[in-house]
Write a structure and sequence with these properties.
The structure is a homodimer. Chain A is of the alpha+beta class. Chain A contains 20 helices and 20 strands. Helices cover 38% and strands 18% of the residues of chain A. In chain A, 59% of the residues are buried.
């Protein structure tokens, strides 16, 4: 094969703050060109609302302009790496954050890009971490449970405020003008391939099984999406947003690159474009995901993916976000779990609570990590719950919040920073234990993302807490590589995803091995973590379990009261 | 009286980090001269041990040199304020932190000042916030409870690791060479008047009822100090440190100023010196303490004092540090409560966890307070327990630690700073409610200390949380003024403490009134505070109650293991 002239694939990876385009050599996965375009709107690309801390939106125009900028730049860079030529690009794959749905009109244009909706928050894309729909999520869970409908069986038994239908339901109820103008409600992972291929009209968009199965309660065992009467029972008219086409795995074709779009980025038209999927799922593929290998994509939040052969029946796993046939690899169940804040938790601490000693010069994370690395497990007396952004797995509850316990007058910033890292590690172990309780064995862990790459302290703590070796994906941009792998497969460069993985993925030589002494202390700390975890979650059998929720309810009431006009406040 | 030539009194106030001398005009309490001498040893006067965060000691030499420096400077300043002259000083009063006991030899010299013990941590003064004796405190509580001895009835039912006998017991067990050299164990509040008057030998030291009654389980109803067999049952030889003399209230004479000491500070010999007492108790007197008036001395920690007539029997109040006849005012029960960390808690946050935005320039407390003042109660969703230094009242448990709950990725430093202020206010209300449950009415609150003086945000939050007006003592140095009042009384300038208070104390014109709307939100938050308070204290009826203690036990084990020599660690 090495004698053949090389071909290339493009992976386009939509993150929380920027879009990245990578061009890879289909022979070995080496990345010959990368370009990143940060989203210009809002705060690091996120449009927020000072009154409602649950709100996180994105401007769809950022997606389109970011795509053009990043791909065009990557092509320019690759042109200087012979024998690359745009004509040698055989396929394009796309991954995105999710669930990040947005409303579109009859022609498939994003409403947020139309002049009349440019400044309407409801018309923008509803970023994964938008939690405005928490009441609707509870309502969906309640209705499914009361009606005995099976829709939640494959997503852990609870619907999340981060997901497709909860957000749409909230939109219908709070922004009728947007709802009326909307002809479709589409995941970013499907919106981008639609834009690239011109299949943009609501009834022509190719939907991916990844978003449909993990976020929209799609499953063949109940005939696809939830029934119309279930949806209309939540809100009349909600069923208007059901779609009929069968969602496809990402090794299938979404269409071919539209010449008008191709021209804007310096590519020939007609290149095959793969069906879209979520970043974590394609990242798992880019990290070499296979049976027994858990892939952790560690970013602002964390997504965990593992696969299991379709031939073996997987039981419904309480609290696990999704068990969806072919959402990661063809022929396999894709199982997704995750933690709502990991990098975001560390960033929060460096931005809000780090004193000048550590924040003064250069890299705050590096300064805190260096000091935290000198501490022994347990020596701070601190313990944290990693719930500053709610809990995605295994509690599936956005209305939980952070907790820090054990601080004294001597407690230092590096001690708390370490406790936060440990908290995310305990959260990771909670997920691994839940998977194994239900028969999904976790033999090895492959980590991806900037934190896994750059912070050996985090990886060592994960190894010690989980008492398992931690490996690091060879590629520094696993999600984009995974997207490119699907581009390569739809472009015919490899006969299957597994064949492509064998050539194009790998792990680094260095592995973080658990230390038995540290692991023993962490085993003790973990029992305390689980005690707090159980006490403060909804199933805790004591009166502290509701403290977090009552605090959030009081907060929201006070803030909305303060934001109301003076007349209303006195009414 | 104003036609008489004025006389003066000196108040000497030993704080946690410095000693202050104040010279006051006996006609009206006005402070004509003040001088402060910081303790030079250790970290802000506190000698610590990196291995054991419970340890906090002070070098007794700092007390003597600090006394000489501060009084001499105050005299120098006062000399420029006619008609002051050293000959017009009629009395000296002394207040100190406590329980801060130290070992002395047969001549009454502090062991820590002798060359052979200069660097021995056990031979120094054991500062109030030293918690090394937490196991011994539990043991004393256990033994008193099991034996049915009444000794804890007047101090809330639990002995504290901060107190006299627990510290002495720990010393006997861990530093036999110091125990052997010690002929006496004396509170700083008694040590200083002894030094001033020359009555230094263990059998000649005049003991104050304040320290004896509140910290050493002295009460006339069981014949004074605990019986010798009770003490020796804890540790053979402990009873050697009992003393026979009856402790006295602070309006009594400890002796007369020794000429050799007088010379070092520029005073004539022979001036009457009052019996010593604790800073909070004399501070309460300086703030105008009387029936129905709770005085809060807000410093690094907080001491609350209130009095009730001896004629009315006061029931034992669970968790209240002490109910001691005449410990504050003659003819009254003195009732003491307190919070282990208030200013210390705010200082911890500014020093360890405040980002450059607020810590960069000038006064960090002012910057955080300004931002925190803009927040509405409840709007942050945060709630803290104020236990970073344990809980003094009503739980009497040094082995509790801090807790912060409700943080999200948007949580800011001023929000946490405000939550910490609120936590101390909730702790203050817990004390007020406990007093009132047992028949001690709290009609008004007078606050003293730098925080009460300088931080209107803290006072407004206290008013809103406690739903009572907060008044501020007129004097900025209430403790030293209280000490001077006792000096004035023993010097004959006033016939009684009450008469002196009427002339020499007062409150400021500005009062912080509770706002009904804010008070209503705080009433809701307080129910949540109490839920966490009860869940995490020893009596909580669920499995979270021991998490704090298990974390501290693990911390101590890990740290001691790490500090052990390598050979021992592998043994």
């Amino acid at each position: 094969m090495s004698a053949d002239p090389p071909t290339y694939a493009i992976g386009v990876d939509y993150g929380t703050n920027s879009v990245r385009a990578v061009i890879v050599d289909n022979r070995n996965g080496s990345e010959i060109a990368t370009a990143i375009c940060p989203y210009p709107s809002g705060d690091d690309g996120i449009v927020t609302d000072p009154v409602d801390p649950n709100l996180a939106r994105q401007h769809p125009g950022d997606y389109i302009r970011g795509l053009q900028t990043a791909v065009a730049r990557a092509i320019e860079i690759a042109r200087k790496v012979p024998p690359f030529a745009p004509q040698r690009v055989v396929g394009i794959g796309v991954d995105t954050t999710g669930s990040t749905p947005l409303p579109i009109d009859r022609q498939g244009r994003a409403l947020g890009m139309l002049p009349e909706f440019r400044d309407n928050l409801a018309a923008q894309a509803w970023l994964w971490k938008d939690h405005t729909a928490h009441a609707e999520a509870e309502e969906i869970t309640d209705r499914a449970q009361r009606s005995g409908a099976p829709y939640l069986n494959k997503c852990g038994g609870a619907y999340s405020s981060e997901w497709y239908w909860a957000k749409l339901l909230h939109l219908l109820r709070t922004a009728p003008e947007v709802a009326e103008a909307a002809a479709g409600w589409v995941e970013l992972a499907d919106f981008v391939p639609a834009y690239l291929t011109g299949n943009t009209a609501p009834n022509r968009i190719v939907r991916g099984i990844c978003a449909a199965g993990h976020k929209a309660m799609y499953h063949s065992s109940w005939g696809g999406l939830p029934a119309a009467d279930f949806l209309d029972g939540l809100e009349p008219g909600l069923s208007r947003f059901r779609y009929e086409a069968k969602p496809l795995p990402a090794d299938q074709l979404a269409g071919h690159l539209l010449p008008e779009v191709a021209q804007t980025v310096g590519l020939p038209g007609g290149i095959p474009v793969a069906v879209g999927a979520f970043d974590a799922h394609m990242g798992a593929v880019g990290a070499g995901c296979r049976t027994g290998t858990l892939v952790k994509i560690i970013g602002t939040s964390t997504c965990d993916c593992i696969v299991a052969p379709l031939a073996h029946e997987i039981p419904d796993i309480p609290g696990v976000c999704g068990i969806v046939p072919e959402s990661v690899l063809p022929g396999m169940y894709g199982i997704e779990a995750g933690q709502s804040a990991v990098g975001d938790l560390f960033n929060w601490f460096t931005q809000q609570l780090t004193p000048p000693t550590f924040a003064g010069n250069g890299d705050t994370h590096a300064a805190l990590s260096a000091a935290a690395a000198d501490l022994a497990p347990g020596a701070s007396g601190l313990l944290a719950l990693d719930w500053n952004n709610g809990n995605r797995t295994v509690l599936v509850d956005a209305r939980l919040s952070g907790l820090l316990i054990g601080q004294t007058l001597q407690t230092t910033a590096p001690e708390i920073y370490r406790a936060l890292i440990e908290a995310t590690a305990f959260g990771a172990l909670t997920i691994i234990q839940r998977l194994e309780e239900y028969g999904v064995e976790v033999r090895e862990v492959v980590n991806c993302g900037g934190i896994a790459e750059k912070n050996p302290l985090v990886m060592q703590i994960y190894a010690d807490v989980c008492n398992r070796p931690m490996r690091i994906s060879r590629s520094p941009q696993t999600c984009a590589l995974g997207a490119a792998i699907f581009g390569a497969v739809v472009g015919g460069a490899h006969p299957s995803v597994e064949a492509a993985q064998a050539q194009m993925t790998g792990v680094k030589a260095e592995t973080f091995e658990p230390d038995p002494q540290r692991a023993a202390v962490y085993a003790e700390l973990f029992t305390l973590y689980r005690r707090l975890h159980d006490a403060f979650s909804a199933n805790g059998a004591n009166r502290v379990n509701s403290v977090m929720k009552e605090l959030l309810a009081l907060r929201d009431r006070v803030r909305h009261h303060a934001a109301a006009p003076a007349g209303a406040a006195h009414a």
